[in-house]
Amino acid sequence: MTVEVSDVPEAKRYEARVDGESKVAGVAEYIRTTELVAFVHTEVEAEYEGAGVGSALVRTALDEARAANLRVLATCPFFAGWISRHPEYQNLLYQSRSKVSD
User: Fold this and answer.
1) How far is CA 31 from CA 37, 83, 86, 97, in A?
2) Contacts of 17 (CB under 8 A, 6+ apart)
3) Is residue 73 within a helix (H) or strand (E), and if so which, with residue range?
4) What Cα–Cα distance (Å) separates residue 101 from each residue in 12, 97, 98?
5) CA-to-CA distance for 65 and 48, rounded, in angstroms?
6) How does DSSP classify residue 22?
7) In terms of Cα–Cα distance, which of 27, 34, 21 is closest to 6?
8) CB 64: neighbour CB atoms within 10 A?
9) CA 25 to CA 43: how far, in whole Å?
10) Which pTM value belongs to this model?
11) What is the C-alpha separation between 39 and 58, in angstroms, rounded?
12) CA atoms of 72 and 52, how far apart (whole Å)
């Protein structure tokens, strides 16, 4: 099975399709600024769960964020969990630069 992922900026999401089908197998919704991209929701159709569609969405989205030099805010539990299991992507995570004074 081949999973193809593409960014659809007008819909503010990544879409995954399997084996060249036109049907969308999964989506990862985001909010993008000039400095960061927040991944807010990921959904994979039930018939494709466990087939690597979600992982393909996350990997492609994070690779593109890295290439664009964007920080990542993973508010979506699927993205957060995936990143926690893949340390090679943890350096993309957004870190607040604000300082709290005592």
Assistant:
1) 6, 18, 22, 20
2) 3, 4, 6, 23, 24, 25
3) strand 71-74
4) 37, 13, 10
5) 25
6) S
7) 27
8) 14
9) 9
10) 0.91
11) 9
12) 21
Q: What are phi and psi of 60, to 5 degrees?
A: -65, -45
Whether 96 shows a pLDDT value over 80: the answer reads no
pLDDT one-digit tens code per residue, 30-41: 999 999 999 999
Which residue has tokens 């805010």? 73
Helix axes 77-84, 53-67, angle to 10 degrees: 80
Q: Which residue has the tokens 């993205």?
A: 79
* Integer angstrom CA distances of residue 11 from 24, 40, 71, 96, 99: 13, 13, 20, 27, 35
- Strands 36-44 and 3-8, how do they pair? unpaired
Q: Could you tell me which of 34, 30, 28, 24 has the C-alpha nearest to residue 3?
A: 24
Only one residue has tokens 């569609």, namely 53
